[in-house]
């Protein structure tokens, strides 16, 4: 049966919900509730009956209340003023409209669904996908399976389609991980001459990763380093092992070092880019090390070739666009062809695949990928890429993509010393938001605000209540949620799928959310259902903060430098506030001062908005803490390592130090009354190294 209701079409056979040819994703229980109301229109339905039927409980559980809220948000244009699914008494609801009924046609799951390539999302529109006649090569759309974190809500899914090869591949993962130590193991690199490989491992009791030597024949792994440095990558270089490391996670001074196999301290080869996660590849034929580097902070990253024979250091890649981007960040070397496969991160958030021949000094651009996390040469013409949609095979000769596996937990794909075998890291993280009471200069009792087996992170307290805005993500989907004072959770959606983001903030009266997503600026009035993009002429927007109900500050990179701009909700002409740099900012509404950091140098700065005078207030404030600070009332809160400092703005003296020892947290937020603290706390994380054979069927 198919029900047509208020523009929605509900297919009970295939369990699909669509609206105006958009496929809507919906949780199974929410779908059951929707169908039940369609089957019983204009009839009072008591929650206790729904509870018995679908939740097997006598009284309405919290999950039913949450599911009803999600159904409201799906159906109603204004959920705060419902007109379609209406409460008509205590725990009684009624569907006010009688849906139109028609027969449902089952899907032929053996027939591939053909769709055009997704269009780039614009301001508040979502691409519509329709079927079209078969091309010469079959097309198929990957089935998007949505695993809901805390609450589901309605999502519009941008299906991606890939050319299906005439002969398919099987990604045959081995039954046991290559390494399964307690903690996280990652970044494997294999020896060309033996059964050994080098990898990084971080034990649960340590904050820093160390270099290990592993073996494919089940010989126990060997620890190569045991110091206070934070190692980022390691690679075999003939009879040597070369690694990159930070001195610590605060300063992040980067070094390329030679690792001893006989227990001697590592020796420094040369510095690498400060604060940059630096990966390595090695060319056996030319004894050359490849790494990511840039000469100064305003320059895009490129791949450099360091000759380990004579020390010559040369940049071998160039940006593919005149527009400033992050640059090259992911690369893999083909020992047979002598070529590097390189991913360049572009301004729009996509990544461009480039093939670079260092010897011939050539660079060829190919197709774009979305959020690739690893890649490996399979042959001289085939590259496997892991991205958000799964594992993609890319054929250079015909420039075609094909989906070979829908495993989205695969990252750090790399070449091994066996033909048609790749190594990869499979990650699983459980992150939830925890709330602490701030009591007498210390953190008192705390409890989990969210309860998910996936990821809930980036919490932000509201300004007038203790409601919390946060991101929730699993392997298939990501969205913004609000948990209010009553404990109800609402999905407020996203303006477009996230490729990268900076931050999200509440307006002073909590009526709006301002967000920096994919280099664009979006605002959402919580009384409305849709997001609005502001100042579309800016495509490099980074950090955002509100000044008042209508005015806000955003940073943007224009003419090669990051500066702060003032904008308004009605999009009056933006005004540039800084000329000497500005990256992240916080507003002190008591004194009309804007505090901010800069992109390329340490320091905390203050701009008097009345006198338009800038001054440096703390020369030692690390630039890498750009998203680790917050102003509340007269105080500045800064997250450093495993603690949060409370600093008086007037004197910059540390008032309190809140200890977070034993807590792995990436972001924090302090409530307006400064009585509560929330952090996104990593409760469990595992990363194991696996092998897989890529088999041609």
UniProtKB/TrEMBL annotation:
<keyword id="KW-0812">Transmembrane</keyword>
<dbReference type="InterPro" id="IPR016032">
    <property type="entry name" value="Sig_transdc_resp-reg_C-effctor"/>
</dbReference>
<keyword id="KW-0472">Membrane</keyword>
<protein>
    <recommendedName>
        <fullName>OmpR/PhoB-type domain-containing protein</fullName>
    </recommendedName>
</protein>
<dbReference type="InterPro" id="IPR036388">
    <property type="entry name" value="WH-like_DNA-bd_sf"/>
</dbReference>
<feature type="transmembrane region" description="Helical">
    <location>
        <begin position="139"/>
        <end position="159"/>
    </location>
</feature>
<keyword id="KW-1133">Transmembrane helix</keyword>
<dbReference type="InterPro" id="IPR011042">
    <property type="entry name" value="6-blade_b-propeller_TolB-like"/>
</dbReference>
């Amino acid at each position: 049966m198919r029900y047509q209701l208020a523009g929605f079409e509900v297919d009970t056979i295939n369990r699909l919900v669509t609206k105006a040819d958009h496929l809507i994703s919906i949780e199974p229980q929410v779908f059951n509730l929707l169908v039940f109301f369609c089957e019983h229109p204009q009839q009072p339905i008591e929650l206790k009956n729904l509870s018995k039927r679908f939740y097997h409980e006598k009284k309405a559980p919290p999950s039913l209340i949450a599911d009803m809220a999600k159904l409201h948000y799906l159906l109603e244009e204004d959920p705060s003023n419902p007109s379609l699914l209406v409460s008509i008494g205590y725990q009684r609801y009624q569907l006010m409209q009688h849906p139109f009924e028609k027969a449902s046609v089952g899907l032929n799951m053996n027939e591939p669904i053909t769709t055009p390539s997704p269009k780039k999302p614009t301001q508040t529109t979502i691409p519509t996908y329709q079927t079209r006649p078969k091309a010469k090569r079959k097309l198929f759309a990957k089935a998007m399976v949505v695993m809901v974190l805390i609450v589901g809500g309605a999502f519009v899914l941008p299906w991606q389609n890939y050319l299906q090869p005439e002969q398919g591949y099987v990604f045959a993962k081995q039954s046991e991980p290559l390494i399964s130590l307690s903690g996280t193991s990652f970044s494997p690199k294999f020896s060309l001459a033996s059964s050994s490989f080098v990898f990084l491992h971080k034990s649960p009791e340590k904050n820093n990763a160390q270099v290990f030597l592993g073996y494919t024949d089940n010989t126990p792994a060997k620890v190569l380093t045991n110091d206070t440095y934070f190692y980022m990558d390691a690679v075999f270089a003939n009879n040597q092992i070369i690694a990159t490391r930070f001195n610590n996670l605060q300063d992040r001074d980067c070094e390329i070092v030679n690792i001893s196999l006989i227990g001697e301290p590592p020796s420094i080869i040369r510095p690498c880019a400060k604060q940059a996660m630096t990966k390595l590849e090695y060319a056996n034929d030319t004894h050359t090390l490849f790494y990511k580097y840039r000469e100064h902070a305003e320059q895009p990253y490129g791949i450099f070739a360091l000759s380990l024979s004579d020390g010559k250091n040369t940049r071998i890649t160039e940006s593919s666009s005149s527009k400033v981007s992050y640059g090259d960040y992911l690369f893999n070397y083909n020992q047979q062809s002598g070529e590097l496969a390189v991913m360049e991160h572009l301004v729009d958030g996509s990544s461009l695949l480039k093939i670079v021949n260092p010897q011939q000094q050539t660079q060829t651009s190919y197709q774009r990928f979305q959020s690739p996390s690893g890649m490996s040469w399979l042959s001289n013409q085939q590259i496997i890429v892991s991205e958000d949609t799964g594992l993609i095979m890319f054929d250079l000769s015909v420039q075609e993509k094909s989906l070979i596996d829908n495993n989205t937990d695969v990252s750090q794909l790399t070449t091994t010393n066996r033909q048609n075998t790749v190594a990869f890291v499979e990650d699983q993280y459980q992150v939830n938001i925890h709330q602490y009471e701030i009591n007498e200069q210390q953190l008192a009792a705390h409890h989990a605000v969210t309860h998910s087996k996936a990821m809930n992170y980036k919490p932000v307290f509201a300004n007038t209540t203790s409601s919390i805005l946060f991101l929730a993500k699993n392997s298939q989907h990501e969205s913004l949620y609000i948990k209010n004072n009553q404990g109800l959770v609402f999905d407020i959606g996203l303006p477009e799928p996230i490729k990268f983001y900076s931050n999200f903030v509440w307006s002073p009266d909590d009526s709006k959310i301002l967000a920096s997503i994919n280099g664009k600026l979006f605002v959402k009035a919580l009384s409305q259902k849709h997001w609005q993009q502001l100042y579309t002429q800016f495509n490099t927007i980074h950090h955002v903060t509100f000044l008042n109900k209508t005015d806000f500050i955003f940073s943007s990179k224009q003419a090669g430098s990051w500066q702060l701009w003032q904008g308004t909700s009605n999009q009056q002409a933006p005004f540039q506030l800084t000329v000497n740099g500005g990256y992240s900012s916080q507003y002190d509404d008591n004194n009309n001062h804007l505090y901010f950091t800069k992109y390329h140098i340490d320091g905390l700065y203050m701009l008097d908005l009345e006198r338009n005078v800038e001054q440096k207030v703390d020369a030692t404030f690390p630039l890498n803490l750009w998203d680790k600070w917050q102003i509340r009332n007269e105080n500045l809160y800064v997250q450093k390592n495993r603690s949060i400092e409370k600093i008086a703005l007037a004197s910059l003296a540390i008032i309190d130090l809140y200890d977070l020892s034993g807590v792995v947290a990436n972001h924090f937020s302090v409530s307006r009354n400064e009585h509560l603290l929330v952090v996104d706390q990593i409760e469990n994380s595992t990363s194991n190294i696996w092998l897989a054979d890529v088999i041609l069927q």
